[in-house]
Amino acid sequence: MNHRTQILTDDAALSEKDLSEPLTYGVEAFLSRDYADLEKGRLWPLVWQQAGRVEEIANIGDFITYDIGDDSIIVVRTGKDALKAYHNVCPHRGRRLIDIVPGEHNATGSRRAFKCGFHGWTFGLDGGNSFILDKQDWKGCLDDPARTRLSDVKVDSWGGWVFINMDPDCVPLRDYLEPAASILDPFELERMRYKWRQWVIFDCNWKTALEAFMEAYHVTGTHTQMLRNGDYYSYSAAFDLHGVSGFDQRDAALKTKAGSAVTRTGKSGVDPRISTYELQNEIYTTVNNSGTTETLVKAASRLKDELPEGTSGDAVIAHWLASAEMDDAARGVTWPTITPEQMGKAGLAWHIFPNMAVLQGVTFALCYRTRPHGDDPNKCIFEAYAIERFPEGEEPRPDWIYAEPTEENWGLVLAQDFFNMAAVQKGMKSRGFRGTLPNPHQEQKVTNFHRNLARYMERGAPKSIR
After folding, report:
1. pLDDT confidence of residue 14
2. Residue 393 burial by CB count (10 A; 0-12/13-18/19+): exposed, middle or buried?
3. What's the confidence (pLDDT) of residue 254?
4. Strands 193-202 and 234-239, bridge-based pairing
5. Could you tell me if 51 and 164 are in contact, meaning their C-beta atoms sit under 8 angstroms apart?
6. H/E element holding 181?
7. CA-to-CA distance for 38 and 36, rounded, in angstroms?
8. Are strands 401-402 and 193-202 parallel, antiparallel or unpaired?
9. DSSP 207
10. Which terminus of the chain has fewer CB atoms gathered within 10 Å of its CB, N or C?
11. How many C-beta atoms surround the C-beta of residue 46 within 10 A?
């Protein structure tokens, strides 16, 4: 007999503590076209969103566009330490100022002015209007500069990322990102640069795609090949709008200060000199040459030769990281100073509300961003990219590459995740699906996401179950 989940509460004011209890949330947010339309007014105009990396707009006049729903934003460098952002629309008749070539990820370039392709109205980098054809025909109504300038959008940066917010009364970016920003500051993410970046239009909701990367609970069932070289019990925790997950131990006595991060020993019960290398090598080769670095993999490959049998796991990690740091220093890459306590608190991967995920390491990060695609709640724009520290002058400059969701293009692990994303989107429509049952210990990032999403959307809050 099928017993439907019994709902006890419907309270959008759930606390972070409540997330450790069994909860459920509905599927409207993933399947409803009406809900997707509401996001355009209740969510996207009111949140800080990552629009790109600072390195993309290094020189005065450099710009990028960022599209979300029906809105398109231009972000432009206006000074050495100054960025501006505007709605990508001419105030005359509403034509977009910057066109995005069909099939391209976004528009980029460098300009000293933005000229509308319809009637030639022109705007400076400061957003002010500098030319209107036959301005006298308006009989003085356009003399007020505020009437003819571009519509401003809030813009700021953190960690090397550019963020925008369409709400003129929004909280400062730093306040919005806390406490995640302070926890991740030691990694100096702003010193990393793109290694590769890919995108695809995929057959699932943007939230379905994002949640596939919010927890490690799925590793045992999805990435079964990885169980040979690692243990994948995990924790998940809420930090206000945001959330973190990391590797955990079912036996608390086995926990180490930095053991929640990707830089950890491999399979328990196996010589850590060997398991550490096997885990790192597998991550690098099956996650599209990311999730760690070539330097870390090579340093791990020497552990068996450099350390005696019986070396403890903590000692193996300490030697491995010190050795990799020296290897990087020799090629001109400086490591940040991160204590084991800071590494442990930072965990493995962060969800930055609403649509950004960061899996960080000492000198690298693997990042994801998802967005709606058009008005269809069953489609999204999925983006993944790797950033890393490089020797000065040797930073690659990869473009966005559209890549079909295959193992050849994305690596085995991400291809397995894609398979799940499509299947979950279909499965949530089933009459036989009785409701979500997220893991209270390992999937709090997911329930915290829905807790905060409900505050913006005024519906869909997680509910207690028994």
Report:
1. 86
2. exposed
3. 56
4. unpaired
5. yes
6. helix 180-184
7. 5
8. parallel
9. H
10. N
11. 14
Residue type, 183: I
pLDDT of 151? 98
Using DSSP bridges, classify how beta strands 356-360 and 129-131 pair: parallel, antiparallel or unpaired.
unpaired
Tokens of 266: 């491999």
Q: What sign for the dihedral angle of Cα 415, 421, 426, 431?
A: positive
Contacts of 269 (CB under 8 A, 6+ apart): none
- Separation CA 28–CA 130 (nearest Å): 47
Q: Is the peptide bond before 186 cis (omega within 30 degrees of 0)?
A: no
For residue 120 the two structure tokens come to: 């030639």
> DSSP labels for 310-366?
T--HHHHHHHHHHHHHHHHHHTT-PPP---HHHHHHH-SEEEETTTEEEEE-SSEEE
Angstrom distances, CA of residue 292 to CA of 17, 112, 324, 360, 388 = 32, 39, 12, 9, 9
What is the tens place of the pLDDT at every residue in 23-42?
999 999 999 999 999 999 99
Q: Which amino acid is at 41?
A: G
pLDDT of 269: 86
As to burial, measured by CB atoms within 10 angstroms (0-12 exposed, 13-18 middle, 19+ buried), residue 309 is exposed
Would you state the pLDDT for residue 152?
A: 98
- Mean pLDDT per 10-residue run, the chain (466 residues)? 37 81 96 97 98 98 98 97 98 97 96 97 98 96 97 98 98 98 98 98 98 92 86 91 89 56 77 93 95 97 96 93 97 96 94 98 97 97 98 97 97 95 96 95 96 96 90
Residue 189: both structure tokens together: 């993410």
In contact, 444 and 238? CB cutoff 8 Å: yes
For the beta carbon of residue 429, count every other beta carbon within 10 angstroms: 11
153 close to 86: Cβ distance less than 8 angstroms:
yes
Q: How far is 124 from 258, CA to CA, in rounded Å?
A: 49
Token pair listed for 136? 């006298």
